[in-house]
Amino acid sequence: MKTVKLGKTGLIVSKNGFGALPIQRISKKNAVYLLQKAFYNGINYFDTARAYSDSEEKIGAAFSYIRDKIIISTKTAAQNADEFWKDLEQSLKNLQTNYIDIYQFHNPSFCPKPGDKSGLYDAMLEAKKQGKIRFIGITNHRMTVAKEAISSKLYDTLQFPFSYLGGESDIEIVNLCKENNMGFIAMKALSGGLITDSAAAYAYLSQFNHVAPIWGIQRENELDEFLSYNDNPPIFTDNMKKQIEHDRKELSGDFCRGCGYCMPCPAGIQINDCARMSLLLRRAPKDDYLTKEWQEEMKKIEGCLHCNNCMSKCPYKLNTPELLKKNYEDYKTFL
Ligand code: SF4
Ligand code: SF4
Predict the structure, then answer these.
(1) Cα of 91 to ligand 1 centre, how many Å?
(2) Which one, 34, 127, 274, 326, has least CB within 10 Å?
(3) Where are the domains of the chain?
(4) How is domain 3-243 classified at the architecture level of CATH?
(5) What angle do CA 139, 286, 197 make, to 5 degrees?
């Protein structure tokens, strides 16, 4: 089975990491079953976040008896030191452990550093000193913050979106992490549902031996698919290359990459999914996006304030409010 060394942490994780965001949506019993099945079939790395409701609790329930056999990363979206400590204590309790392997700042809008007024990085250092965390990580969707985190040399790992739809600038981040011996954890390796061929996604990422992808897993058949790659890793074939070129062409132009650089939105619109709903409906199982929850999310587009904050932050220069409107119109035809 393929493994990845996470940079200077020295941690060896399975090439398939388990992204535990989707297990929020299933029962505790089913989640524990999936997590344990993953572990007993070779997955040793599980990534979650304080923000993923009961995901941490489910991991705690599944693994408290074999804590030292697995590697856990979780995240805090704290804005100051007080919130940091509250989150950390809660995560330790939920995960039924007294240490977290990689504790990550969850998509902060800036790169926390020692002595800054947020006090966040100093709190991380103190938590490390106390043995409550082993390594310091950061997750981000913003190129600028990611680059700053790498050059600061303050972080052991970076979690960043990376898939075969990524451009040269994403590959630059991946390579910079390698040069700086920083672990690279790839989120959204299926581009949030736009990539439907997981074998091609896996084979593409296999070319980068220091990259550890985490796959969001909710169903047993999804888990089985990734487990099958442990024994028979998909090879990057010419056909896959053609398919990737085709996807890159199809998903070019006015297409939202789901990066989230434009967020948060003052009207609470989940722009990174809603602005590409037409693609999600056509490229992924559409029923997943027609639920009551999603209908409510899409309806928020009606409340767009046309402040254009999103447009000014989009690195792809998309007319985001217009794109949201188009996607909403199209969405209604599916209902
Ligand atoms: S223009 Fe609309 S979608 Fe964009 S940030 Fe403002 S309210 Fe949100
Ligand atoms: S609108 Fe632009 S910035 Fe926002 S999620 Fe889509 S691609 Fe990213």
Answers:
(1) 32
(2) 326
(3) 3-243, 271-334
(4) Alpha-Beta Barrel (3.20)
(5) 60
